[in-house]
Amino acid sequence: MRPELLNPLFAEVETLKGVGPQVAKQLAKLGLNRAVDLLFHLPTGAIERIQAPGASPALLGRQVILDVTVSEVRLSRGRGPTRVHAVDGEGNTLTLAFFNNGGWAAKQLPVGQTRTVTGKLEAYGDEWQMIHPEVTEPGKTGPSLRETVYPLTEGLTSRRLRELVTAALERAPVLPEWIEPSVLGHNGWRDWRTSLATIHAEPADSAARKRLAYDEIFANQLALALLRQVSRRRRGVPLRGDGRLTDALDLPYALTGAQRRVAQEIRDDMGQEAPMLRLLQGDVGSGKTLVALLAMLEAVEAGAQAAMLAPTEILARQHHATLLKQLDSLGVRVAILTGREKGKARDSTLMGLADGSIDILVGTHAIFQDKVAYRRLGLVVIDEQHRFGVSERLLLTAKGASTPHLLAMTATPIPRTLTLTQYGEMDVSRLDEMPPGRTPVETRVIAEEKMVDVVEGLGRHIAAGGQAYWVCPLVAESETSDAAAAEERAATLALRFPGQVGLVHGRMKGPEKDAVMAEFSAGRLAVLVATTVIEVGVDVPNAALMIIEGAERFGLAQLHQLRGRVGRGAAKSTCLLLRGATLSETGRARLALMRETNDGFLIAEEDLRLRGPGEILGVRQSGEAQFRIAAPEQVQQLAPMATQDARLLLDRDGGLQGERGEAARLCLYLFERDQAVDLLRSG
Ligand code: ADP
Ligand code: MG
């Protein structure tokens, strides 16, 4: 339950004076539904205006306040604006132009009267001009010399927003301090309420902005630290294998050094009573599946069951097939459960899980439905962790009387600070070494106008017995339009390569998709046109060419993942990034980066550097927009400090006790990390 002190802040905007349904609707378009949202809707800057007696070249392009006397009004006739001619205090003639509200302008600016006009001073031919100036009567309060500017939506002015923010600020209570005094002192920060008021008055005040960003990151890190603490306190079962299965495993290759190291870290964790909570980061192709397999076998040797959660149906089936092949001869029983297993097959799997005759289960979300009961679930592996949010991780660790060990795996190479803010509750292992014998994928950036050449090249590749992926651009946020684009591309290519082109996209049903994938895997299709559904896991070694259309519209992490689909066989692989005609400077740099390196971690760090605020790699793509105030560079800078601050607070006080603990609890509520507080209670 949220502390009462904060209730006024979390009340709907309609409870603010002067906000009716109309305004509320406009605010909603900006995502501003409650007073607190207004409070955290930070200004982007300020306008400085100049009060002057008359127009002058030095003022061109500036926001200027002038007293003028109206000499003539020429109402618009059909096309063209209404023009009002006026004379300023120094005898210059100005034209005030109004494009759509001529009637209003004529009323505001009666001929012969003096008015104050405010707007951007421009030159039109050899005339002075202002377009849509604000008009006030002399002596009445008009625009001030300095005004903060907010991100706007149609129908709401900065002035109106400012009034509303002021009203919201009045509701902000004085709160006890949650930041460690030394951190506060060192940075010269003032209390959060003062800082907030400061930002809204002085948008450029960097100390105040930094404090607020810190507050938000601190809340996030505290929530993760709580999660960490609670999960450590839970009881699991130590699992120690005797090596009879892992030793018998028939591998055509030796483990890489990194695989061996990480496997040992996992074994050590699983041997403890405190449940493992470990994130395994490893670039595409670094061999995570094998590490997971070793961990699962360890669990089975110790008499427990293991479950492996895949983000897509395709991937679940692929894992299932791989595991069957490797484990059948060892007598390890593997089953699959997705939304598609129905009837008798499903019933028998459920029974096998309950009586313990199934050792390893692979599947999609279906494996954690309430009806699925395990006899002795000891280990949960989550593949491609970035598809799962914090809430799902919470859910997983909460399952059962004794908590299973958890191994989460991700190929999204996120920078270290972002690992801290997204997975701060977990221990992290990195597979930072590729299995030997890989030829790096050659990447080329090609203008989309050269499409004909690209298709010719594809033709030669196919003629030589090769296979290729063709990835279609993200047209919009909707799967429907992405699918339409992919359909169209597939149709065009099929004209050129009849009978050899397959298509998969997100709107297709599971069995349909699998059938096409199977055809492609078996080599009966030469080209697979796809949307990003092939992003994760898919493994067809003979496909050595990847063409990505509209490459600039993908995130770098995504491009890197897609590229990881090729370069899996012995043949040299190529990735063609087709770019649109208009490419920004940043877009150019990003594609160049893809061309220059295959190192996912390097790409991630650079991408973070190249991207603007609010575009954190991996975060937005996973739908986990964590921060609304803190910009990426602030996260970079402040996350380590906030993490330490949060952990110290918990370690010293053993929870959210004491004055600072209470304050920190308020901070969690303020930034809506309540889930963590609830967890503490249920603990
Ligand atoms: P990812 O980390 O992307 O999930 P996979 O586990 O799918 O990577 O491994 C990619 C490929 O590398 C697979 O074909 C796998 O059999 C192979 N592989 C894994 N470990 C090794 C190794 N130590 N030596 C050689 N090949 C390996
Ligand atoms: Mg994988």
Automatic annotation (TrEMBL):
Domain of life (superkingdom): Bacteria
Record carries keyword Nucleotide-binding: yes
Molecular function terms, GO-annotated: DNA helicase activity; hydrolase activity
Domain Helicase C-terminal, chain residue ranges per copy: 450-609
Keyword check for Transmembrane helix: no
Keyword line: ATP-binding, DNA damage, DNA repair, DNA-binding, Helicase, Hydrolase, Nucleotide-binding
Positions of the Helicase ATP-binding domain: 269-431
SUPFAM superfamilies: Nucleic acid-binding proteins, P-loop containing nucleoside triphosphate hydrolases
InterPro entries: DEAD/DEAH_box_helicase_dom (IPR011545), Helicase_ATP-bd (IPR014001), Helicase_C-like (IPR001650), NA-bd_OB-fold (IPR012340), P-loop_NTPase (IPR027417), RecG/Mfd (IPR047112), RecG_dom3_C (IPR045562), RecG_wedge (IPR033454)
Entries under NCBIfam families matching the protein: PRK10917.1-2, PRK10917.2-2
Protein name, UniProt field: Probable DNA 3'-5' helicase RecG
Gene: recG
